[in-house]
Structure formats: C-alpha cells, structure tokens
Specification:
By secondary structure, the protein is an alpha+beta fold. It is 19% helix and 28% strand. It is globular and about 75 Å long. The model is unreliable at 91-105 and 108-128 (pLDDT under 50).
Length: 834
C-alpha cells in the first residue's frame, strides 16, 4: 500500500483502492474512498470553506498506517483498508493497532505529490493511558453501475393523470431508460460496541429511537425525512456527503450503511464527546440556521382547509374576540381555480379580496401562511410558462428545482399574487413529488418494497445521485429569491421534506400526514428526538394527527367522502372527530406536547381544529387548550432566546436526554421525554385517562410516571416540589397538567399576558430562578422579522445565579437594535422557586 502525505491530507493507495483522510479540525476527519483516483467534487449541502488545515502526523506500523492529530487517530489496516477510530488521551500522541506490532518513523518509502519525503513524525505512543477506541469500521465496498436516464426518446409523453389523497400526479407511461454514465453503489460496514446506541438518520414513521438491531430506509416520502447523519452514544457522529437513496442495516450478520448511487464514498467522522459539539460541527459544515421570524414561535392555526380569504381573517378575529393568543393562520391547498392544480394564481371568486383581508389580518397583529406545490396541471399559466422555458422535469408537471433559472421563475410566479397579495410565509407541501405510487391501497407495503417503489420513481425524474435533494433545492429557491426581494421579511418555509442544510434556508420540517392514535403520538416523539440528534433544529408535527377517521369513509376530508376504498394511511381511531371525547382528550395531550416544539401548530383533515370546536370557556377541553396556548406565550422570552441560541451557537430546542445526560444509562434509553432547551423536562402523557374511542368513559388513575435524569435535582413545574434526579417519580396528571419539571440551577425568563409574539405589553419581565446549583441564562432580543441580526443588531443579556450566595446577577446588555426595549430592568420581577 502506497502512502502519500501532503500538507492537507494523507492518501493510501493500491490497485482499485484510494483512501484519502483529511483532518478538518483536531477532532474531525473527512474520508474519501474510491476505486479510481480521487476527484474533488462539489456538494449542494456541505461547505468545507470554514475549515482550515490542521497539523497531523503519520506512522507506519507492521499492520497499519496511523494518521493522527493531537486528539484523534485514524488507523488504516493494511489487510483490508478498514479504519479504527481512536480518541487520544490528554498529552498522548496516539494508540496502537489492536493487532499489535509497530514501526517507528514516517510513511516508509513514500513521497508527497510535490516531491520530497513525507514529513510525518512518529513518537512513542506505547504509554497512552486515556486513549479509547470509538469505532471500528468494517470494510468499504464499491461496485460500478450504469446510471440510467429516463426520457420519452423524443416521443410525445403519454400521461396518466391520477388524483390521489396527496394531490394530483402525473405518471408517464412511455418513459424509456438509457445508460447515461457510470457511478458506484457502495456499503460502509461497522463493528459497533455491544451496548452502543446509534441515533439520527432523520425522521421516519416507525418510532425507532435507537437503531441498533433495526433496518431503516432513507428516502423522501410523506412521513419520511431522511438525514445523512449517524450519532453514537459513545461520543462521535458521522455526516455522509450523499444525496442519493440510502439504507441502514444492523443485524446479527452485519451492520452497514448502503449508498445507492455515488461517485465515491465521502463522509466526515466527528470525534466530539457531546451531541451539542457534534451537531455544532454538522451545522458548521451544512450551514448556520437562519433566524425565523419571532411570530413563527407563537401559536399557528391550520386545518384542511379554509376556502376564502374572508374565512382566514374571520379565524384570526374570533381568536382575538375570545382573548386566546394567536400568531398565524394557514391557507391549505386549492387556492387555485378548479382544475388548475398547483397554480400560484388565486381563484378570484374566493380570494379576489386577498390584499384587503391580509391587511386586516396584519391589523390584528397576526400573520399568514400559504400552501404551494411543486407540481402543476397542464394548461395552467404557471405550468405553460415553465414548460415553454424547458423548466419541467420529465413528469411534465414538476418544476426543475435544480435549475437556478427555474427556481427564479417559480418564485416570480409565487410572488405575483401570493407574496405581493400579503401572505407572510410559505408552506411548501408535497416536496417529495414522486411518492404517488405508494399513496394508495388498503395494505401498507413492506418497508423494502416501499423503498424500491418510491425510490425508483424519484430516480426516473431526478439524477439518482440527487434523489433525496429535491426538497432542499426547492427551499433554497424560496429562500434566496425572497431575500433578493426584501431583507425586511424573514423567510419561513414549512416543508414536508428536506435534508441537511435546510436550516440555513429558513425551512421548518414537519412529519407529514400521520393519523390520530395514541400509538402515533408516541412514535412522533421518538421521531422528533432523532431529528434533533440528526442536527436539524426546526421540526414540528400535525397536532392531533392529520387523519382522524378510520372506517367511516363518509367523514373523510380532502374531498374523499365519496370514496369507500380503504387506505393504509387513513387509519385514525376517531370516526366522529371532535364529537368524540376520546379524540378531544388525545388532541389535548398532543397539543400539550406540541407546546414545547420549535413550531407550535395545529393541523389536520376530517374534523375542525380551532379551539371553539372543543367546547367553550369553562369546559375542560377548551380550558386545557387555552391554558397551554397561554403558557407558550408566557414563555416567549425563553423560547425566543432558545431560537437565538440555535442561530448563534448551533443550539437545539427539542433535546433528547442524550444531549445532557449521556452518562445516565436510563436517560439514554428514554424515548418518551425530552428537554425543551436545557432547563425544562417535558414528559408527555401518551395514554388515555378519561375517554376511550366513541365517548367511552374510563376509570383510571390520573397519574403519570416520569424519569428524572441523574446528576440534577428537578422542580415539578405545577407544584414547585423538588425531586432528586436519577429516579422514576409518579405525579398527578389531570387533563390540563402534563408533567413538566425544571432543572435546579435554571433561570427562565417569562412575561405574562402576551397575545402575539411581538407584543410589548405593560407586564414586567419575570425572571424565574430554580435554586440548587449555580446557573446562567442568556436572554436574546432582536427586531423580530428582518435580517439586521446578521449585521450584529441584536442584544444579549446574561443572567447568573450564585447558589452559595443565593444571588442573581444581571449583566450589562451587549448590543442594540432599533425598537429595543430599555425599561425592563426597572420593571423586573424576580421569582425564586422552592
């Protein structure tokens, strides 16, 4: 095996084996493997320019080459080229091969491309005490394949237009495939430690938290948002520079990640100890999260669907009359004229007064969001313009989001009547536009069958190397073009699919069209935790589940109440929707959990979702919903500071207990609780206590058992009772009291009585201190809905609690911005709990 060392990388080569190791930081390596000489390639979601050259050394031993920085060693075994990753101890130079034997010196008999002997220096590393092996990779496999391209071969397309629950789709009947170029399929094998946990991979449907012993398929689909990230509870993570389909397998026989279509195997090994540090590196590579508008962290009311501009304004007005906080109302699909699916021109008979109604909504200090689709019916003005410009993919319906010109044209179409008409934000629906073949039928297909079916459909219309990237490029177009239009309105894009780096485009991912059941609620929590562990900061769901109906097809929404055919995805437990107290209870518990997500949004079909459909003031379901909406707004100073942390420090709002309690074995296994920020432990209730289906009354004790992580004391939010960590506790959990605990040492800023996120009312800023240990919190403030923060126009105020002195210190405010509130210090209320 030949060893080449340059200033920037080390490369090992032999026949059909080229492995390049590039130190990016002391604890971060990029690895590129190919059967051909390695070529530098561009990535649409990874940017390496922020990383500088890191000093490293190479030592050749009898069995391996050891490439090391001061913190990490990559040992490449000569026998099969696999890598053993080791974290080096303080002051140690490295760790030896488990196979034994060493040769001191440089890369023996090798030279750099620039000429001259390689400069690697090798010290004696036999005395390394604290070095620990993080991961033993298995072999790397690559097999050359023909990459196929699908066209009609110059024939007119034969289009089968199908109306599905998930929109109208084109299926081209006369596509022909031809070999376009060569690439590889590949596998990277792993040899995990026996008790190691593996997390990440984005969000799927099954509710798998720890992927050990499981298979997972990484492809874009309704309810599936893959992320090319693995995170281990042993203190490392991996980011894969791959936009193609992938699959993960961990079984008794083998463990590997499969890559469907790649030019070479390319990934980053991040040997940092905590999830926060790992994710900080992932964001440094994929992009800093953009600040969302402040109002995006308020309550968002949506449903399938509102039918007129007047109805949107009426919803906002009703919330204001009821005195229930609200920040946004959402317009779902069908703003277009009948038959013009996907047009971004509105039906004037229903939305002719759009501008006036949007001004009315803005006058009530609220905002709006509108659904737009990437695919359009033939004959509409938008479709015709894109078709004539050659900007449609080969389904002759979906615009080519990989073309900058097409993205700009799509934006201009959306701007003309929707953005200029007053809508404030985007709901980019169905951004995995080729999932139609699986969206029907009574029986859900096998996981591998769905992967092949939907994956192959994407590969018909997209380059296979980019089969997972359509939604990302779509979000890029919305973000970049809106920012060209104005810097005064932050981009907010709620999108059903996405990929790593979407956070820099203001894209919030939501989990898709789930159905209403207690089991779904539990699965959604685990999926949200894995999205956070994948490094993506903005994720949400449909509170209450999208579909509520099961067998009673006559009650279906989405215009499907005349279709009796069973659907595998339309399996809700509540045929009567809000008329069933069992559903009302599920909805309330779902909303209680959703209060503590990055985006707080109610949405679904089959049954209405506005608060007045759950009773009236003084009735339990209504009161519980109002209580949690108010709690969300009371916490707005805390929540918006968490958002600031996401942007400035690569923070994570919805935090698996792995983030802060990696050493706690029980915390590592906990998949039904999470931290909201670093202070609040959220323990969702995921089982009925009052009603079963069909209004069946239950006789159950209204209590819930929660795990409190070890190493901290915890205050019960509702009673202020203090508990020691490292134990399970059972607490009361009536309908309006989801168990919430606050970590000792926390400082939580609040303000009572806010009706919309930007409101500056007369109530004092409250600083809630939970004693028990030293603590600190940074309050973040800015102008709320422009990009001035990028120029440093924001303010940070540090609050610290000294436990020994029982003293709260408020630091000087650093920074300033237009409209900054200066008087809160004189009108401050400090609450010491316990």
């Amino acid at each position: 095996m030949k060893c080449i060392q340059t200033e920037h990388y080390a490369e090992l080569a032999r026949e059909m084996f080229f492995l390049r190791l590039i130190p990016m930081e002391e604890e971060v390596f990029r690895c590129v493997f190919s059967q051909e000489p390695i070529a530098e390639t561009e990535s649409v979601f990874i940017d390496r320019t922020a990383f500088a050259t890191v000093p490293y050394s190479i030592e050749e031993t009898e069995h391996s080459f050891q490439i090391r920085t001061s913190r990490v060693q990559a040992e490449v075994l000569k026998s099969d080229g696999r890598i053993i990753w080791t974290r080096l101890g303080g002051g140690a130079n490295g760790a030896g091969s488990p196979e034994g034997g060493r040769m001191s010196g440089k890369c023996a008999g090798t030279s750099s491309p620039e000429g001259g002997q390689a400069s690697g220096n090798c010290g004696d590393i036999s005395g390394s005490e604290a070095a620990s092996i993080l991961l033993e990779e298995g072999p790397k496999e690559l097999e050359k394949i023909d990459v196929m391209r699908y066209t009609t071969g110059g024939e007119a397309p034969v289009i089968n237009r199908v109306k599905t629950v998930d929109g109208e789709r084109n299926f081209i009947q006369n596509l022909k495939q031809t070999a376009d170029h060569k690439a590889y399929k590949g596998r990277l094998h792993f040899r995990w430690k026996p008790e190691e946990g593996i997390y990440g991979l984005g969000q799927a449907e099954e509710g798998i938290y720890n992927y050990r012993g499981h298979d997972q398929y990484l492809y874009q689909h309704n309810m599936r948002i893959p992320m090319p990230v693995l995170l281990s509870d042993q203190g490392y993570g991996m980011l894969f520079n791959c936009g193609s389909l992938m699959s993960f397998h961990d079984g008794g026989d083998d463990s590997y990640l499969f890559f469907d279509t790649i030019s070479q195997m390319d990934y980053f090994f991040i040997a940092k100890k905590t999830p926060d540090e790992i994710i900080g590196t992932i964001r440094s590579l994929t992009g800093r999260a953009a600040m969302l508008p402040k109002w995006a962290f308020g309550y968002i009311q949506s449903k399938e669907q509102y039918y007129t501009a007047k109805e949107l304004a009426d919803v906002v007005r009703t919330y204001r009359e009821l005195g229930v906080p609200l920040d946004c109302v959402v317009q779902d699909w069908n703003t277009w004229e009948l038959g013009n699916w996907g047009e971004k021109l509105v039906d004037k008979s229903r939305y002719g007064d759009l501008k006036e109604r949007m001004e009315e909504i803005h006058g009530m200090h609220a905002h709006s969001m509108v659904s737009v689709w990437p695919n359009m019916n033939t004959g509409g003005k938008n479709h015709t313009e894109l078709f004539q410009a050659g900007h449609l993919l080969h389904d002759y319906a979906t615009y080519d989001a990989f073309s900058e010109e097409a993205r700009e044209m799509y934006w201009q179409q959306a701007k003309k009547e929707l953005f200029d008409g007053g809508f404030d934000s985007w709901w980019c629906d169905s951004t995995e536009p080729f999932s139609g073949p699986d969206w029907g039928g009574a029986m859900k297909r096998e996981p591998w069958e769905r992967f092949v079916l939907v994956g192959n459909e994407h590969k018909k219309y997209l380059p296979p190397e980019q089969a997972n990237l359509f939604a990302l490029m779509h979000a890029k177009g919305i973000y970049e073009n809106q920012r060209k239009e104005t810097e005064d309105i932050r981009v907010l894009n709620l999108t059903r699919s996405g990929y790593a780096s979407g956070q820099k485009y203001g894209a919030v991912l939501w989990s898709g069209d789930t159905y209403a059941s207690w089991d779904t609620l539990k699965k959604q929590i685990a999926e949200g935790l894995n999205m956070g562990l994948s490094g993506y900061p903005y994720w949400t769901l449909d509170i209450g589940g999208f579909f509520t109906v099961g067998s009673k097809w006559q009650n279906r929404g989405c215009g499907c109440n005349t279709d009796p055919s069973p659907k595998w995805f339309w399996q809700g437990d509540y045929n009567e929707g809000v008329s069933d107290y069992g559903y009302r209870e599920l909805y309330v518990r779902w909303l209680e959990m959703g209060t503590f997500l990055p985006m707080f949004r109610s949405h679904g079909t089959d049954t209405p979702r506005e608060i007045w459909n759950f009773g009236k003031k003084g009735e339990p379901f209504y009161d519980a919903i109002e209580k949690y909406i108010r709690l969300r707004y009371d916490l707005m100073p805390y929540i918006y500071s968490l958002a600031g942390d996401v942007c400035l420090n690569h923070g994570t709002m919805m935090r698996s207990l792995l983030f802060d309690y990696m050493e706690d074995e029980q915390a590592r296994k906990t998949d039904q609780e999470f931290l909201f920020g670093k202070s609040m432990l959220i323990c969702p209730v995921t089982a009925p206590m009052y009603y079963g289906k069909d209004n069946q009354e239950l006789q159950t004790e209204k209590v819930w058992t929660c795990y409190l992580p070890a190493g901290d004391d915890w205050y019960h939010y509702w009673t202020d009772r203090k508990y020691e960590g490292g134990q399970f506790v059972t607490v009361d959990a009536p309908l309006d009291e989801m168990p919430i605990f606050v970590k000792a040492g926390s400082i939580i800023p609040m303000r009572q009585g806010i009706m919309y996120a930007d409101e500056k009312n007369e109530n004092p800023l409250e600083i809630h201190v939970y004693p028990g240990k030293d603590g600190a919190f940074t309050l973040y403030e800015d102008e709320g809905n422009n990009y001035h923060y990028e120029d440093g126009r924001y303010a940070l105020t540090e609050f610290t609690w000294d436990e020994a002195k029982r003293k709260l210190t408020i630091g000087d405010t650093a920074g300033e911005f237009d409209g900054m509130e200066h008087g809160w210090r004189e009108n401050l209320k400090v609450c010491i709990h316990g």
